[in-house]
Design brief:
Elements: H1 13-20, H2 30-58, H3 64-107, H4 114-126, H5 129-137, H6 141-148, H7 159-173, H8 175-202, H9 210-225
């Protein structure tokens, strides 16, 4: 009997929860929950197909070619809905990430006028580096909004300095949103790598000649069922 293949450990459902930090409280987060369900579906689907392979290979009434065709069909039929589930989870997670970014951006917007924001940026740019850093470390949303909505150099910052400021401000002011976004980003990365692993591990179940064989069979069937011309 064919030895049963085992799904790789890196696709185990526990891996998703461990690497993303997913917990029971996240069951109420639709985007994270969809990603967790899609990940589990990759593992369960692969395991089901490996069991199906054993059953098909054990049927000695079929030729090897017939077994290959049956297994290839089963694999294709299984992969299509799993691909749709994974893509839906990716789309939902990416949309949720954009939503978090927008929520943070709106919350950090300065309520000051354009002239006032420009004046703040000019003042901050005029400060010595250490004083500038000290001021920004204790700045309120109006000041941070003025700085972060303008080009970094307008406030005397480098691009990397502005990114560090934004990152620090987001973590300090919106820790829950930042944590959720981090989980979602990890979920997206895992789903991409998980889908690649899924395809790679199922490749041996697919007969590379299947499409050609199926095409020839369809042509033969069409020819056999074609109406016969009757001579006069």
């Amino acid at each position: 009997m064919t030895k049963k293949r085992i799904p790789p450990l890196d696709l185990d459902p526990a891996v998703f929860r461990h690497r993303t930090g997913y917990n029971e409280a996240d069951n109420g987060d639709q985007a994270l929950h969809n990603a967790e369900v899609a990940w589990s579906a990759l593992f369960n689907s692969m395991n089901d197909l490996f069991e199906r392979e054993q059953i098909i290979r054990a049927d000695k009434s079929r030729t090897r070619e017939a077994q290959n065709a049956l297994l290839t069909k089963a694999t294709h039929n299984c992969m299509e809905p799993i691909a749709a589930k994974a893509q839906n989870a990716l789309d939902t997670a990416n949309a949720a990430i954009r939503g978090v970014n927008l929520d943070i951006e709106n919350a950090m917007k300065s309520n000051l006028s354009p002239d006032e924001r420009a004046e703040i940026r000019s003042y901050i740019r005029s400060l010595p580096e250490k004083e500038r850093e000290a001021l920004l470390n204790t700045a309120d949303n109006d000041v941070l909004g003025a700085v972060l909505t303008g080009k970094p150099f307008l406030s005397g910052l480098s691009s990397s300095g502005a990114e560090m400021l934004r990152d620090r401000a987001e973590k300090q002011q919106f820790p829950e949103l930042v944590q959720r976004r981090e989980k979602l980003r990890k979920a997206v990365d895992l789903l991409h790598s998980g889908w690649e692993s899924y395809n790679r591990n199922l490749k041996p179940l697919i007969d590379p000649n299947f499409a050609a064989i199926e095409g020839a069979a369809r042509k033969a069937e069409a020819a056999a069922n074609a109406p016969t011309s009757v001579g006069s």
